[in-house]
Amino acid sequence: MRIAVIGIVIEKDRKASVTVNEILSEYGNYVTGRIGVPDFQNEIFVISVIVRAPIEVISAMTGKLGRLNGVTVKAAVTNVEIGDEEPRKE
User: Fold this and answer.
1) DSSP the chain
2) Do the Cβ atoms of 10 and 70 come closer than 8 Å?
3) Could you say which of 3, 10, 30, 35 would form a disulfide bridge with 53 (CB–CB 3.0 to 4.6 Å)?
4) Homologous superfamily (CATH) for 2-77
């Protein structure tokens, strides 16, 4: 398991935000924090997500997000391995 911060920028067409939120919900058990900052004037919407997940899960999530039109994704992943316990269940 690793801790990562995933930065998501949605530009111009806000329709992509629906799919972004669906993907984030799909991986919701791994999300430990999330903040969204809209810039309505410039039509840019920024979401910062903190996840605790295996590197394969982080890669899968960022890959799905990065394939969306109008969406840019960058991840900063820690090098330190953390506990292997399963993510919380809601």
Assistant:
1) -EEEEEEEEEES-TTHHHHHHHHHHHTGGGEEEEEEEEETTTTEEEEEEEEEE-HHHHHHHHHHHHTSTTEEEEEEE-SS----PPPP--
2) yes
3) 30
4) ACT-like. Chain A, domain 2 (3.30.70.1150)
Alpha carbon distances (Å) from 72 to 32, 35, 45, 82: 21, 16, 11, 27
How many other CB atoms sit within 10 Å of the CB of residue 61? 23
Sequence spans of domains, the chain: 2-77
